[in-house]
């Protein structure tokens, strides 16, 4: 029997892959924040499903919903925590100037989205002022640490959904 929980193994894999993806998106292949979010969610779902399937196989093909949710949630949350700590180190010790680049990219993405919705110029200017302030504050240490709460919530919601499809209740004949 393996002493290391399956959720921990796949949570670490998810965290490492998230860090590598972020480095690529930050430095090599800049993409929009919505595309980056989509890729992150796809990776999250994939690792949750893989971890749940392995847990089910280890438990002789049985995985009650509660166990599936626990495995999925802990896989995602572990990955989020790893990525969070990496981002704290990256933004505060390795490359503090990256924050300015990311803020500018996020503001450009937000403006493009609002323009695509046909927002009037006066409302756009007002919304952009608010967006600049909010995006500028998003990379502070306190906001990054608050990201743990967001990561837990996202892991719980996505885990609850994926667990519906990965569970297998024990049948009694």
Describe the structure.
The chain is 82% helix and 0% strand. With 173 residues, it is mostly helical. α1 runs parallel beside α3 (65-94) and α2 (33-58) packs across α3 (65-94). The chain is built from six helices and no strands. The mean pLDDT is 90. It has helices at residues 6-28, 33-58, 65-94, 98-116, 121-137, 141-166. The longest helix is centred in the middle third of the chain and has 30 residues, at 65-94.
What labels describe this entry?
173 residues; mainly alpha; 82% helix; 6 helices; elongated
Query: What's the helical proportion of residues?
Result: over 70%
The SSE order reads HHHHHH
Secondary structure category: mainly alpha
Beta-strand content bin: under 5%
Rg calculated over all Cα atoms: 19 Å
Query: What is the molecular shape?
Result: elongated
